[in-house]
Amino acid sequence: MTTGEHMKLTDAAIARLCAGEREYTVWDSRVASLGVRVRPTGGRSWVLLLDAGGRTKRISLGPAATKTVAEARREALGRLVDPQPEKVTAPAVPLFRDFVAGPWKEAHFDRYKPSGRETASGFLRRQLLPVFGSKPLDRITPAHVRRWFDRYSRTAPGGANRALDILRQIMNFAVACGHVEVNPAKDVRRNRRPALTRFLSREEIARLHEILDAQTRKESRQQADIVRLLLLTGCRKGEITSLRWSEVQDVMLALADSKTGPRTVPLGSRARAILDRQPRG
Predict the structure, then answer these.
(1) What is the average per-residue pLDDT within 52-67?
(2) Rounded to an integer, what is the distance from CA 20 to the centroid of its chain?
(3) Residues 252/265, Cβ–Cβ less than 8 Å
(4) CATH number, position 225
């Protein structure tokens, strides 16, 4: 796509515009002075050319993600009739908390699985909103993000990584909406996770089973069985604790909503016996 090209703009066509090495603008063939500016970061915004006392003036009509083609054309035609040459006020950049509660929630958060929404809500509530919530999106700097990330990493490096991932997604969407030029979290390096080089030996597994066998109370027995199933299936904790009977088949588990999507897990005879002694209902 080259700058200056005219085409019939549609919402689908705008969504397909790809970022290039340089900024470019695609102009509407129906309202010739209306265009979509595409930045190298992927951000798209509406622009309009106005005649200001014999000079051409380019103004912004806001992020393309927040306005349909029909809405942009109506606004452009209104500006061409009444260009308001004295002053054109740029749209206010939203606060982080308002952007999260509005556009980002609708575009991303609401599409998470229930477990993903619960996780993201916790990091937003405990970390991201207290630190960045009152700041306009374009006032969040890489230095702010690094200070927060370094402080959080001292006590919970894994949690800091997960919260950083959520912040990056939010700010990437802010870039796409045209609120910021560059994601301030993009160059922050995640904490390295230590490689898993140590596994339980057979002797350690045997001792663990002895301890589990010693649990005689009903509540403790079920907790012990959960640990046994984790050992025998390799499932994640949440996959076992939220397991439903509809997911238990003869020789496998048919997990409908695991972290990586639907998947099957083979069941050995020992794991099957543990499941068979669990109460139903």
Answers:
(1) 82
(2) 24
(3) yes
(4) 1.10.443.10
